[in-house]
Amino acid sequence: MEHLPVLLIVVPLMAAPLCVLIRQPTLVMGFALVVIWSCPLMAATLLQRVLADGTISYAIGGWPAPYGIEYRVDALNAFVLLFVSSLGAAVLSYAPRSIAREIPQSKHHLFVTSYLLCLTGLMGMTITGDLFNVFVFLEISSLSSYALISLGRHRRALTAAFQYLILGTVGATFILIGIGLLYQMTGTLNMADMAERLRDVTGVRTVLVAFAFLSVGLALKMALFPLHLWLPDAYAFAPSAVTAFIAATSTKVSVYVLLRFVFSVFGVGFAFDTLGLDRILLPLALVGIFVASTVAIFQQNIKRMLAYSSVAQVGYMVLGISFASVNGLTASIVHMFNHALMKGGLFMAMGCIAFRLGSVDLDRMRGIGRTMPVTMALWVVGGLGLIGIPVTAGFISKWYLIMAALEQDRWVVAALVLVSSLLALVYILRVVEVAYFQEPAEGDAHVTEAPMSLLVPTGLVIGATLFFGLQTSWSAGVARVAAESLLGLSR
Amino acid sequence: MSPSTVLLLTLALPLVAAVLTGLFDRRPNVREATTLVAGVLTFLVVASLVPDVLSGLRPEATLFEVVPGVSIAFTLEPLGMLFALVASGLWIVTTNYSIGYMRSHDEGHQTRFYTCFAVAIFAALGVALAGNLLTLFVFYEVLTISTYPLVAHHGDEKARRGARVYLGVLLTTSVALLLPAVIWTYTLAGTLDFTEGGILAGKADNLTLGILLALFAFGTGKAALMPFHRWLPAAMVAPTPVSALLHAVAVVKAGVFTVMKVAVYIFGIDLLASTHISVWLMYAAALTVMLSSLIAMTKDNLKARLAYSTISQLSYVVLGAALATGSGVIGGSMHIAMHAVGKITLFFCAGAIYVTAHKTEISDMRGIGRVMPITTFAFLIGALSVIGVPPFGGSWSKWYLALGAIDAHQSILVGVLMVSSLLNIAYLLPLPIRGFFSAPEGVANPKVKEAPLFCLVPLCVTATGCVLLFFYADGIYRLLAPLGGQ
């Protein structure tokens, strides 16, 4: 049990190359599913232990903390690990039937390998307490996700993957430069240690530059407006399962890393009082929410529409960070989770639609509410979550966000957040009208409901958005504990 | 069974009905029987709690905590009891009517219709039984969403446009005004529980309270206070049973119920009366009463006229809440029931005329009383009750509202009530008068042809209800007495 933190990373990391050796598609998938479902179990155990006993520190190879690599698990990253691995597992359970249509069978084992590597990278970025390690895992997850996106059957998947590769590499390089500058100033790579040593050099320009490089790099990876340009194409042209997986996990982990850097390494005082980070994040978040939501309204490709919606949703997470208060951070953290569920579920539903229709264009979705009632009902529930209708998880996020804004007497921000939900209403309603109140096209009248192997995982994820809209002690409750510890208010 | 179990059962029954109606897609008779049985059971379960509430008990049930200190929780108090009785009672009648209307009209998507209908009733009951503002808000939104497919039922361009306005106005007001009001209340008072005497006294200055009251009054779009009334006429594209449900039972009543509940249990009428923050609301409501009555007179389409009449009548309830006197609150709350029964009769009649004679414009309805005497007579009774003439239920609520206005020293508002009754006469009575006294066009002695029994019986039942409510208003008064501190 004591090796759990490292097992969580090593198990999927070691399993990935084995998949290449096994090659036989069915065996590979069976093996990968066993491996991947062990991850949420381990993460859940970790979260439970962290909540009971406090932060866990694990020294890799037995080298003690500031010298060796430390894995450090607290409430925040245990929570992120749990939902990232759970969604990774849920989407992979959904993948077999979906990729059978979208990816040539000869590449199935490569898909699974990249998928496991990507998940490893994301979990590694989350669990590690070492700055350079963050970069290493970031590259693992990025490279594997470029490969995953390029598997899309449309030829534009290749350009989308290439575009992401260029911008993602720029982002990663910025992060590396930032880490390098910090190392130069402090002589350490351990986050906790660095937080101590940074206090002596707060005002030094090198530290400021390092901070700038890091935040711009991370903003690129999390697709914060206006650095989101890679995201819509990547999401729209990747295979359905890949989109669901990346949309549910990848940007959230980048938001997590930003939280970690800002609050645990640099400290609230430096980031907000000295640098005024809120004055940059707040307008970017708000403009991003409005621009991306508006652009989403005009999309014909619904995967692309949801991609723009993701850019807007990242805005909500960043907005919560910019408040630098317990409720604001709770909103951010809980929205990372809620949005992972909603967007993961929505893209899975899009995968069901693509499975039957072979297209995700709005025109082709006419009358689909009748031909694929279950899929579309799940889609609508997910969509209501994006608007923030009560009983869905999205409402909980909005609640904390508005409360955080009102606490600080930021009336305008609260009003803008509420108005922006109405933009979400417009783009969701547009699809609902076409799907339910128009007759299917001639050729699509025979379309039937998606197979159970796709519907069941989708239903579970969407069902979870309803569950966490009501029972919030496992989502918002944990997020609150994490927010308090980030602000140094407890433990 | 303990009262709190009964409370949850009340909510579970319509939900079960929604699932079952969905399952019996291919067996219409079973499907509609399920709805009927569920309606009767729900009503009986609600009614079984009346003695408890009358004796001063407040059954409670808590489900789960959503945000710290605020749970999805239910408390049954007199106002909610009244609304729950109205909603579940009229559900039975409306189901009967729907069976006649939907079948003789050969409407499509009937399963979706009955399922959404049951969900809407579930949501309305949730609003009625809500123990705190968050729960109320949650069910308020569920009600909006579940009625959207009903409004867009026909699915053509006109229906979709109407439904878009419907959803747009209701969601915009609730998300942009009501939700911040709820969260703001929470940050001020630290709780959202409905408490006798209110929770805001001494928690904020008068200006803040005034803004908060405005957010609540306009944010409750379902109360159709001008300028947020446009959704109601837009929703007229729906089939008539839906209009009956929307305009008499679930949606609009949930709106004014919310306003009343907030005034009594969040602000507290003592706070409203002592700070005078609700005076502007009285005049806003009075203005809505007058303007929408005037607009109603210009409408020739019967359903549109009834829609504007509804907007005007809803503001009576808002007015009762804003008066912040015992009689005003009782009169306003009583009006929820009185208007529900009266207006549903009018809509049933409009639908019956449409199904049988295929007429929608009032100017075409000359001599309709000779073709459909029972329907036209029921329309007359419903109209008289809405106008507020004894011996019909509507007279009592107007009586108490007028008393409340006098208590609040607002003699102008007494005048408004009188004039509005005159306007009601001017726009509601032409139909029965022309129907009975003008000769129908073309044929000299047309044959009597009434709507199908499934339509005819419900409208007779509700018309009788208008009379009975006059004689049994005492029961409602006793139920509501604790609200007015009497």
Question: Would you kindly provide a written description of the structure presented here, covering whatever features stand out?
Answer:
The complex is a heterodimer of chains A (491) and B (486). Chain A has helices at 4-22, 25-53, 75-102, 108-127, 131-150, 156-186, 191-198, 205-221, 230-237, 240-266, 268-274, 277-297, 302-323, 326-357, 368-371, 373-387, 393-407, 411-437, 452-470, 476-486; strands spanning 56-59, 70-73. With 491 residues, chain A is mostly helical. Chain A has a domain at 276-491. Chain A has a two-stranded antiparallel ribbon. Chain B has a two-stranded antiparallel sheet with strand order 1-2. In chain B, α1 (3-23) runs antiparallel to α5 (110-129), α2 (28-48) packs parallel to α5 (110-129) and α10 runs parallel beside α11. Chain B is 74% helix and 3% strand. Chain B is mainly α and 486 residues long. Chain B has helices at 3-23, 28-48, 50-54, 78-104, 110-129, 133-151, 157-189, 206-219, 231-234, 240-249, 251-267, 269-275, 279-298, 302-323, 326-357, 368-371, 373-387, 394-407, 411-428, 430-437, 453-471, 473-480, and strands spanning 60-67, 70-75. The mean pLDDT of chain B is 84. Classes of the chains: A mainly alpha (491), B mainly alpha (486). At the A-B interface, α17 and α18 of A face β1, α6 and α7 of B.
Overall number of strands of chain A: 2
Q: Report the biggest beta sheet of chain A as strand number plus sense, adding barrel if it closes.
A: 2 strands, antiparallel
End-to-end C-alpha gap of chain B: 31 Å
Principal-axes shape call of chain A: globular
Structural class, from secondary structure content of chain B?
mainly alpha
Order of helices and strands of chain A: HHEEHHHHHHHHHHHHHHHHHH
Notable characteristics:
heterodimer; A: 491 residues; mainly alpha; two-stranded antiparallel sheet; 2% strand; B: 486 residues; 2 domains; 22 helices; 74% helix
